[in-house]
Amino acid sequence: MGADTADATDEYGIPVIPDPTDAAQRKRRAIIEAALTEFLAEGYSAASMDAITSRSGVSKATIYKHFGSKERLFLAVIGGVLPQTYAGLESSTSTLVDAPDLRAALVDLGTAWAHVLLRPDIMSLRRLVIGETERFPQLGRLWYRLSYDMINGPLTEAFTELDRRGRLTAPEPELAVQQLVAATLGVPQLMRTFAPDEELDDARLATLIGSGVDLLLARYAGPGQA
Fold first, then answer.
1. Over residues 82-108, mean pLDDT
2. Among 150-154, 158-162, 180-184, which is the least confidently predicted range?
3. Residues 189-226: tens digit of each pLDDT
4. Per-residue pLDDT for 94 more than 80?
């Protein structure tokens, strides 16, 4: 691996690791899975390359050959996992503009998103990135961008169309989306991030999401909203 390749990063500063050959694919997957488990359990500083070596069954020399350093391994593994956390969420906004009952559609949307975003594995990843953002700001920037691309961006487009149709009166649709996300997902995410043992059952979640949607509609429901 040449020096230029070893130092290559994408627009967020995440290392670009060349695709492995077929013979190396299984080793690469084993390294990534072992490193993810170790980093989530221990954080960056306390994570042990010896433990990753033991978990993966791949020699330390091979790990360094593939990734170059512990820092690049961390960035490549976590940066590679982050895009998967929101996969599929953006498509759930596609039927929102034509929903006969906008409130019900927004509640269903918030509930579907909550069931993904509050999963224990995603919350563990969220805590890890929050804890390491000062050391690795590129991961924070990547998560922020993905949040917009997968959630806020598509929902802003839907709100823009709902405003055009008169179902919402939202001249600043991006602001309305930020307010909706904060009012529906903000509290559950905060609870699961910093107080994971705090009780948050389906009934409580439904109340939080429903009341958040009601707040939005109380402010933005348009004359064309049935």
1. 84
2. 150-154
3. 999 999 988 889 999 999 999 999 999 999 999 886 65
4. no
For 20-54, write each residue's pLDDT tens digit: 556 578 888 899 999 999 999 999 999 999 999 99
In sequence order, the β-bridge partners of residue 221 are 168
Residue-wise DSSP of the chain: --HHHHT-B-TTS-B-PPPPPHHHHHHHHHHHHHHHHHHHHHHHHH--HHHHHHHHTS-HHHHHHHHSSHHHHHHHHHHHHHHHHTTTSGGGGTTGGG-SSHHHHHHHHHHHHHHHHT-HHHHHHHHHHHHHTTT-HHHHHHHHHHHIIIIIHHHHHHHHHHHHHTSB--SSHHHHHHHHHIIIIIHHHHHHHH-TTS---HHHHHHHHHHHHHHHHHHHB-TT--
| Overall size of the chain counted in residues | 226
Place of tokens 């924070």: 140
What count of other Cβ atoms lies within 10 Å of the Cβ of residue 5? 11
The structure tokens listed for 90 are 């953006």
